[in-house]
TrEMBL record:
Origin: domain of life: Bacteria
Keywords: Cell membrane, Kinase, Membrane, Phosphoprotein, Transferase, Transmembrane, Transmembrane helix, Two-component regulatory system
Taxonomy of the source species: Bacteria, Pseudomonadati, Pseudomonadota, Alphaproteobacteria, Rhodospirillales
Transmembrane segments: 6-26, 38-63, 75-97, 109-127, 133-156, 168-189
Protein EC: 2.7.13.3
Chief location bin: membrane
Protein's recorded name: histidine kinase
GO BP annotations, alphabetical order: cell wall organization
Signal peptide positions on this chain: none
Organism: Rhodovibrio salinarum
Amino acid sequence: MTNLLPHHLALFQNLGLMAVVALAYSMGSRPIARTPPFVRGILIGLVFGGAGALAMMIAIPLAPGIIIDVRSVPLILAGAFGGPWAAIIAASVIAPVRILIGGTGVEPALLSLIGTTILSIGLWHVRQRMQHWQMLALGAAGVLSMVPIFLGLLVLGLDRGIMLFQSIGLELMLTHTIGCVGLGFLLLVEDQRRNIETQLVAARQAAEQANAAKSNFLAQISHELRTPMAAITGSLELLSSQNIPEGQRSLVTVTRRAANNMIELLNDLLDLSRVESGRITLDPQPVDLDALLGDTVSLFTGRAQSNVEVTCRRDPDVPAAVMADPKRLRQIVHNLMGNAVKFTERGFIEISVDLGPDTADGPNLIVQVRDTGPGIPADRQEAVFDVFEQAEAGTARRFGGSGLGLAISRKLARAMGGGITLASTYGVGSCFAVSLPLVAADPENVPAQPGDGTLKELVTEQPLAGRCILLAEDVDANRTILTGMLHALGAEVTPVADGQAAVDAVQAAGEQTFALVLMDMHMPVMDGMSAVRAIRALPGAPARTPIVALTADATPENQAGYESSGLDGFLTKPVDWSRLVSLAQALSPVRAPNTAAAPPTSEPVDPGPQLPVWNARFRTDLETTLGASRFAICCGPGLRAPKPV
């Protein structure tokens, strides 16, 4: 007993074993943490109880039948990190092994196990209340673990117990303290890491839920706003196509401009939500750069000041067609051009397309918008790309705008693999440069783009003449306005108010089916998707009826779901009439009005030169929808009924 070297060696071997156990606990803590608390306590108790049992295999023979080891360390840590059940399970594993070893030290060992278990459970309660003093508590537990060991040795007799404790007590206390502090520190670090991971997972889930809630809210509010906006813009389109007095026409023009601004703001908010959540969808396809530049110049020349020249230029080395998302590229260019037109009062605005320097990923396409506007101060040039930020505090009051365009444009450019930079001299002008990966495309593969004619221009051509269209729309105002618009474009219209009525109408038409079905997606009785599936399930020709969604729900995610139901096209409200005409002409041949499906909604009209002449039923419906007073104010003498026959 006087030779302490073997004692020290055995104790350090015990500690090495405890370190292995701590490593095993660290590796298995993640799956253990996913279990219910009761099961977790049992698993931790089994792990540390097994460690205590192994420690007795390399114990120090202190006297015949009496062994000393560090079994108390895993027992203390089991309760401290696993709770009361872990301590009880660990003690239940250690005790039978000690009984099997046998000897005169069995009773002292069992007594010390009971005391250490109580100490372990007490340490667990202390850890729950002392978040900042846990290492001190672990060290104190290592020292206090000597108390049950000393009391257990006294069972052998007072003198003998004191003698045995004096021979190994100091080394054992140091070993227990080092074991509890050292291994406890490793376990604390592992627990803290796991807690941080849990908090991060919870924070990510909360962020995802909040983002989903925001997206759902925006999708819902988009639908709710687009629905009345469709009626407003539709009414304004119809009014602007009439021969109304100049005073009323100017009011219609102002109102249309305000409605378009409202729709642009709504679109910006939806785009901002999508790009911030990483849910922006891109549809790369061949883009005709000359057409893009020409359309942009044509669109913004009329908006620019009279003493501002708007020009465009494409470097001959740049391919005539490139692969890009045409909608997003046009959105970026229009945002930049819109700002240039808004702030430039004299001089020029130029949009140019050039080749950028080669990079590791290949050449870049550089689209630049230069202007001779007021310029942007150097300390504000980065801030203008932030959400709701503008160059100066008074900019919004003087020029209007929400401060979303540049933020969205930069995020879109980055989503497309590029970026936007700004070079500006205050008082001289600005140059915004969009850099995108250059992928040449075959100009022959550029898809045809619908025209941008106004309803008044389209009405004079009667592009939908000879087509019978089924319109499924549940909102009375929208159904009335859309019916009038389609009549003005030359179509015969059968309006219905829900999806089931649409299915019934298509089924009743039989082989003489409709040229086109315009289907709202959110309707009572039967929604649009269910109606589309029901029509596709009909036998014969009705199942092949072209169906185009016409909905205020503009989110790409929902659009993909709608198209999977069997749609042939997708249009959002407010209606892009040139696109609707293009889709109708592409999907449906000219055919005679379908009189079998439903009574015709048009009546004989005055063959005079004034267009359009609306049928009496539509005039009555519109007057009922708007009210007599608003109808008289809005429509004036421009809305004339046919002469009686």
